[in-house]
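User: Structure with phosphoric acid mono(formamide)ester, tokens only please.
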Amino acid sequence: MERATSLVVGDVDDLAPEDMRRLVTEAVAASGPLRGGTIAGVFEHPSMRTRSALGVAAAALGATPVFFTGDEIGIDTREAAEDVAEVLARHHRVVGARLRRHATFERMAPRFAGHQRPFVNLLTDRAHPTQAIADVITIHEALGTLEGVRIAWIGDANNVARSLAKAAGALGAEVRIAAPAGFQFSEADMAEIDAYLERAGRARGAIALFDSPTSAARGADVLSTDVWVSMGEDPAKRSAFEGWALTEALVAEASDEVGILHCLPAHRGEEIEASVLDGPHSWAFRQAGHRVTAMVRLLAFLVDRAGSGSIERW
Ligand code: CP
Ligand code: NVA
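Assistant:
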């Protein structure tokens, strides 16, 4: 469903497909539109890449980054999430948040919309849109297009997979999701993804679900995976993923020129073989580098849309 405001990015489908396309293909000259202002980053979970990219993007836009951990704010323990949002929206020109629960993001979002401030999801249990934009930028850089590119996701159909399916599917890729029983996309996930792909003009069937890693990997141009236990999840879940690692054997099933994606952090020897992550097919560190490309482009786009380029009066 489309959101009333276009300044809140809870997932990829908050961006119009044509805006997604621009973010992937068009470089921006960020000439300090937020000079004198701040960008806040709220992190209820640990982060390296996302927090770092937010800091770099702040510098590119001329803003000073201000970081908070979940503990020091105490969202819904020290004070209500809505109150936190109301105050941050009054202080900062842009706010990003990595939150344990997507529902908390949704409760905070209207406060930012009310103040015409961009509010960006920096990972929740449902979605990781800034990662997905980096992923499609990486694929586009390597292959020159997403059109017809066969992407196989191997492992847990999680937050990162959901956002990637939307982003890559909207840009014309054929996305195969291979996950063990119980960890595959739900019908509701598929309905949400298909709705976005429909907005992008894609026919149904661009996203296909598989119950075997080998059949999903066959002939793929890109293989992608992620940890088996996401932040905040029960480690007991791991036992369901035996036989689901991204191995050399799966790489051998894919196209000769296959590229390997992993959003990182990775566990070598668990969800991905070390020789795959560190091998000649790996794009994982280019992908990590493009977290900055994606963050700068997205924030520049939202700041421009918010029309908040002028220095404020105090
Ligand atoms: N991929 C990613 O989001 O990394 P961090 O958790 O380190 O930010
Ligand atoms: N799926 C992982 C991604 C980490 C960047 C998690 O949510 O922990």
